[in-house]
Design brief:
Elements: E1 13-14, E2 17-18, E3 22-24, H1 25-32, H2 36-45, E4 49-51, E5 56-59, H3 60-67, E6 70-72, E7 79-81, E8 84-86, H4 87-94, H5 98-108, E9 111-114, E10 121-125, H6 126-133
Antiparallel strand pairs: 1-2, 3-5, 4-5, 6-7, 8-10, 9-10
Protein backbone atom coordinates (compact mmCIF):
# COMPACT_ATOMS: atom_id res chain seq x y z
CA UNK A 1 0.00 0.00 0.00
CA UNK A 2 1.42 3.38 -0.99
CA UNK A 3 0.89 6.57 0.98
CA UNK A 4 0.09 9.46 -1.31
CA UNK A 5 0.34 13.14 -0.52
CA UNK A 6 -2.90 15.02 -0.61
CA UNK A 7 -3.22 17.53 -3.47
CA UNK A 8 -4.99 20.09 -1.27
CA UNK A 9 -3.47 21.95 1.69
CA UNK A 10 -6.69 21.49 3.69
CA UNK A 11 -5.67 17.88 4.28
CA UNK A 12 -2.83 19.09 6.50
CA UNK A 13 -4.92 21.44 8.65
CA UNK A 14 -5.20 20.70 12.35
CA UNK A 15 -8.29 22.37 13.68
CA UNK A 16 -8.54 25.69 11.84
CA UNK A 17 -4.86 26.46 11.33
CA UNK A 18 -1.83 25.03 9.58
CA UNK A 19 0.97 23.89 11.86
CA UNK A 20 4.00 25.86 10.68
CA UNK A 21 7.55 24.69 11.26
CA UNK A 22 9.19 27.94 10.21
CA UNK A 23 7.65 31.33 10.91
CA UNK A 24 8.61 34.89 9.98
CA UNK A 25 10.28 36.94 12.70
CA UNK A 26 7.43 39.46 12.63
CA UNK A 27 4.84 36.78 13.48
CA UNK A 28 6.86 35.46 16.42
CA UNK A 29 7.47 39.01 17.69
CA UNK A 30 3.74 39.77 17.70
CA UNK A 31 2.92 36.43 19.35
CA UNK A 32 5.34 36.94 22.24
CA UNK A 33 5.04 40.74 22.46
CA UNK A 34 8.71 41.44 21.66
CA UNK A 35 10.10 43.91 19.15
CA UNK A 36 11.94 42.56 16.09
CA UNK A 37 15.44 43.06 17.52
CA UNK A 38 14.60 41.23 20.76
CA UNK A 39 12.98 38.39 18.83
CA UNK A 40 16.00 37.93 16.57
CA UNK A 41 18.34 38.07 19.58
CA UNK A 42 16.37 35.37 21.44
CA UNK A 43 16.04 33.24 18.29
CA UNK A 44 19.79 33.45 17.78
CA UNK A 45 20.34 32.35 21.39
CA UNK A 46 17.97 29.42 20.79
CA UNK A 47 19.74 28.48 17.52
CA UNK A 48 16.41 28.91 15.78
CA UNK A 49 17.15 31.86 13.45
CA UNK A 50 17.59 31.21 9.72
CA UNK A 51 18.69 34.18 7.62
CA UNK A 52 17.86 33.66 3.97
CA UNK A 53 18.54 36.16 1.20
CA UNK A 54 15.48 38.34 1.70
CA UNK A 55 13.74 36.83 4.68
CA UNK A 56 14.52 35.81 8.24
CA UNK A 57 12.74 32.73 9.55
CA UNK A 58 12.52 31.15 12.98
CA UNK A 59 12.17 27.43 13.56
CA UNK A 60 9.03 27.49 15.70
CA UNK A 61 9.55 24.28 17.66
CA UNK A 62 13.09 25.16 18.72
CA UNK A 63 12.09 28.72 19.66
CA UNK A 64 9.09 27.53 21.70
CA UNK A 65 11.28 24.99 23.49
CA UNK A 66 13.70 27.76 24.44
CA UNK A 67 10.84 30.01 25.58
CA UNK A 68 8.90 27.45 27.63
CA UNK A 69 10.21 28.68 30.98
CA UNK A 70 9.47 32.32 30.22
CA UNK A 71 6.51 33.74 32.10
CA UNK A 72 4.66 36.98 31.39
CA UNK A 73 3.98 39.04 34.49
CA UNK A 74 0.22 39.81 34.61
CA UNK A 75 -0.70 43.43 34.00
CA UNK A 76 2.69 44.32 32.48
CA UNK A 77 4.69 43.55 29.38
CA UNK A 78 7.57 42.13 31.44
CA UNK A 79 8.70 38.60 30.79
CA UNK A 80 10.53 36.55 33.42
CA UNK A 81 12.36 33.28 32.96
CA UNK A 82 11.02 30.98 35.64
CA UNK A 83 13.51 28.79 37.40
CA UNK A 84 10.92 27.36 39.81
CA UNK A 85 7.31 26.31 39.32
CA UNK A 86 4.63 24.76 41.49
CA UNK A 87 3.84 21.08 40.99
CA UNK A 88 0.57 21.62 39.11
CA UNK A 89 2.05 24.15 36.72
CA UNK A 90 5.19 22.08 36.13
CA UNK A 91 3.20 18.92 35.44
CA UNK A 92 1.28 20.85 32.77
CA UNK A 93 4.52 22.20 31.24
CA UNK A 94 5.91 18.68 30.87
CA UNK A 95 2.57 16.97 30.08
CA UNK A 96 3.07 14.41 32.84
CA UNK A 97 0.42 13.40 35.38
CA UNK A 98 0.66 15.07 38.78
CA UNK A 99 1.58 11.98 40.85
CA UNK A 100 4.09 10.68 38.31
CA UNK A 101 5.61 14.15 38.08
CA UNK A 102 6.06 14.31 41.87
CA UNK A 103 7.89 10.96 41.80
CA UNK A 104 10.20 12.12 39.00
CA UNK A 105 10.88 15.50 40.62
CA UNK A 106 11.81 13.83 43.90
CA UNK A 107 14.08 11.38 42.09
CA UNK A 108 15.72 14.32 40.31
CA UNK A 109 16.33 16.11 43.59
CA UNK A 110 14.53 19.13 42.15
CA UNK A 111 11.91 19.66 44.91
CA UNK A 112 12.03 22.50 47.41
CA UNK A 113 9.58 22.70 50.31
CA UNK A 114 8.95 26.17 51.72
CA UNK A 115 7.18 26.70 55.07
CA UNK A 116 7.58 23.09 56.20
CA UNK A 117 4.79 21.12 57.80
CA UNK A 118 1.61 19.98 56.14
CA UNK A 119 0.63 23.24 54.42
CA UNK A 120 3.97 24.17 52.85
CA UNK A 121 4.53 25.21 49.26
CA UNK A 122 6.48 22.80 47.07
CA UNK A 123 8.48 24.25 44.19
CA UNK A 124 10.27 22.39 41.41
CA UNK A 125 13.60 23.57 39.98
CA UNK A 126 12.90 23.31 36.24
CA UNK A 127 16.58 23.36 35.24
CA UNK A 128 17.44 20.40 37.48
CA UNK A 129 14.36 18.55 36.23
CA UNK A 130 15.38 19.18 32.58
CA UNK A 131 18.82 17.70 33.26
CA UNK A 132 17.24 14.66 34.92
CA UNK A 133 14.85 14.11 32.01
CA UNK A 134 17.75 13.94 29.52
CA UNK A 135 18.64 10.48 30.84
CA UNK A 136 15.36 9.17 29.39
CA UNK A 137 16.14 10.43 25.88
CA UNK A 138 15.97 7.65 23.29
CA UNK A 139 18.95 7.33 20.92
CA UNK A 140 18.46 7.93 17.21
CA UNK A 141 17.87 4.79 15.17
CA UNK A 142 19.37 4.73 11.68
CA UNK A 143 16.95 4.08 8.84
CA UNK A 144 17.17 0.79 6.97
CA UNK A 145 17.08 2.65 3.69
CA UNK A 146 18.05 6.30 3.15
CA UNK A 147 15.17 8.66 2.45
CA UNK A 148 16.87 10.13 -0.61
CA UNK A 149 18.91 7.82 -2.76
CA UNK A 150 21.83 9.27 -4.64
CA UNK A 151 21.86 8.92 -8.36
CA UNK A 152 24.74 7.01 -9.85
CA UNK A 153 27.77 9.21 -10.33
CA UNK A 154 26.80 11.79 -7.65
CA UNK A 155 28.96 12.26 -4.58
CA UNK A 156 28.23 13.61 -1.12
CA UNK A 157 28.91 17.33 -0.85
Amino acid sequence: MVTQLQPDVRAYLHGAEVIKRFVRVEEVASEYGFNLEETEYIARAASALYKLTRIHLIQKERFDEFMRHIYKVPGTNKKVIKKFARIGEASIIYSIGRHRFIELARAAGATYKINGGTGGTVLINLELFDEYMEQFRQPAIPLKEPLFRQKEGEENE
